[in-house]
Amino acid sequence: MMIAIIVIVAIVVIIALWLVSTHNGLVKLNNQVEEGFSTMDVYLKKRYDLIPNLVETVKGYAKHESDTLEKVIAARNTAMGTNPSNLDAKIANENALSGSLKNLFAIAEAYPDLKANTNFIDLQEQLKKIEDDIANARKYYNATVKNMNNKVQMFPSSIVAGMFNFTKKPFFEVDSAEERQNVKVNFNN
Residue 118 domain-assigned? Predict the structure, then answer.
């Protein structure tokens, strides 16, 4: 009888330790996902701050391109105004902003004086560095999301995840079909 009680107590202790360990692992992964997104958010804020300067520089050279410039500012404002807790909307709005920035640089190609402007070149270099930082932050964020999603979905940790309402997190992915296409290089120009 005493041995049965000891075995039952040992089993209960082992299960309790497993529950606590799994819960703490999920909390740790969730915090890493939040840290990854917060780091990326810092770089996104830097990009938001840089865009008005870039648009103003382009405006001086490309006065009749106001529609594209307005779209860039609108995309920036939408991305900035997105609630960070709504990850799906944040990701979609950031991808829209990235697309509008590509249009802005396409305009710059048509204006040789603009491309030679030192202020524009400096802003473009700053934006390139920020975009690289954002890309690295996205990689880290997506890696932590993968770890979190694995733990949330894989048995037996999925049981604990369900008990404590841990859910899958969205990846920060390119959602535009044109951005997924291979770059076409033409040397005949």
Answer: yes
Give the chain's mean pLDDT.
86
Say if residues 73 and 52 touch (Cβ distance below 8 Å): yes
In the numeric block, the tokens 């305009």 are attached to: 107
Query: Is 64 within a domain?
Result: yes
Q: Could you tell me which residues come within 8 angstroms of residue 153 by beta carbon, excluding any fewer than 6 positions away?
A: 161, 168
Task: Decide if 2 is inside a domain.
Answer: no
- The mean pLDDT value for 74-92 works out to 88
Q: Does some domain include residue 15? A: no
Could you list the residue range(s) of the whole structural domain that residue 146 is in?
51-175
For residue 174, the model assigns a pLDDT of: 67
Residue 15: its H or E element: helix 2-61
Q: What is the pTM of this model?
A: 0.77
pLDDT band at 136 (very low <50, low <70, confident <90, very high): very high
User: Which DSSP helix (H) or strand (E) runs through 153?
Assistant: helix 118-153
The count of structural domains within the chain is 1
